[in-house]
Structure formats: structure tokens, C-alpha cells
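To assess whether ligand presence alters the predicted conformation, the chain was also submitted together with protoporphyrin IX containing FE. Input:
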Amino acid sequence: MTNLLKHPQVLEKARLEIDEKIGEDRLIDEPDLAELPYLQNVVSETFRLFPVAPLLVPRTPTKDMKIGGYDVPRDTIVLVNAWAIHRDPKLWDDPERFVPERCNNVGGSENYANKLMPFGNGRRICPGAGLGQRIVTLALGSLIQCFDWENVKGEEIDMTESTGLGMHKMDPLRAMCRPRPIMAKLLI
Ligand code: HEM
């Protein structure tokens, strides 16, 4: 939601997609997500720039090994910096910019699994990845479908990130929302 308020043109595009595909007669539901590729891209691009677990989960190799040319003795604590990989200019064009369109190729020919890893990667990848991605997308889609959103007048959105194992905003988001007509239609 913070990224959407920072980029109103993205919010508008996501709202148009929802209005066109779902309409005003019913609420967005889980099976609809397949028909909402732009909304999915918004979530993927948010996970790229702001991965929930920026260092994934610490792992330790069970035997001596080489990783990326470095000798790593067994039992070493290995951290994968997904945050840095997600912002590596060798992997992404203009990596600091929030551009959901760049995620159009997820699942396509480009090997996203090796560079977009908000749920980790390989054998120990998050088993709840599909569920987690769907829940976040459905929650965001519902907020967009049901409310008009805008910044609190006169307030700049502070994007400073917290430190720690999980990433959240230092300064919680404050935003204004107004119910859209669909709310009156469905609730009354
Ligand atoms: C947006 C939601 C979620 C995010 C961002 C997320 C992220 C992650 C990450 C980064 C890891 C570590 C992967 C690695 O070390 O390479 C992980 C592991 C794990 N996640 Fe999730 N997760 C989410 C939702 C869920 C849900 C809904 C479940 C269960 C229903 C779940 C269950 C697990 C379990 C059991 C592991 C440990 C896997 C292992 O070590 O083999 N996660 N998750």
C-alpha cells in the first residue's frame, strides 16, 4: 500500500484492472487472481524491493564446500542476502525503481527463480509460498477494490526500513481511505 500511494499511477492501473475484470457486483475472490496479472506484478515487485525476510533463514552446510568460489567449512552460518540480490544492477535494470511491469516475465523464459527469491530458493524454499503470495495479493486487491486511497494531506511518506530479521517500515503508514460505491452496493 505504501508503494501504491508513492506511485498513484500504479494504484490507478491496478484499480482499473480489478474494475474491468471483477466489476462492481461482487467482491474479488481467490480464483480471480489468475485474471489479475498486474495486481500479481505489484505484489512481486513489492517483494523484490522489500522482501519480508531480507536475509532469508540462516543455513549451515553439513560438510565443507565451496560457494561462489569461497571455501565454506561445515557448520558455518550462511546468510543469503536476498535484499541485495533483488537490488543488484547486474540482474535488474534501474533496480531501485518500483516498476511492476518488469515482473511480466515471472514464470517466463527469464530465470526469475535465481534472482527473485522472497520465499527463498531450492530444496528449503518456503512451502507456504503459493499460499502466502495469494493471501497478500487477495488482501491488497480487496483494499483497492473497496476503498479509494490517498496520502494524509501535507505528510511525506517515509520509506525508511527497519533493521532486524524481518523487514517493516520504521514509520508506520498513515493513509486516508474512502469506501467506494461497491461497498454501499454490497453491504446494504
Ligand atoms: C508472504 C508470506 C510468506 C513469506 C514472505 C515467507 C518467506 C519465507 C522464507 C524467506 C523462508 C526461508 C526460505 C529459505 O531459507 O530459503 C520461509 C520458510 C518457511 N516458510 Fe514461509 N513465507 C510466507 C508464508 C508462509 C506460510 C503461509 C507458511 C505455512 C503455511 C510458511 C511456512 C514456512 C516453513 C515451514 C518454512 C521453513 C522451510 C524449511 O526450512 O524447509 N510460510 N518462508
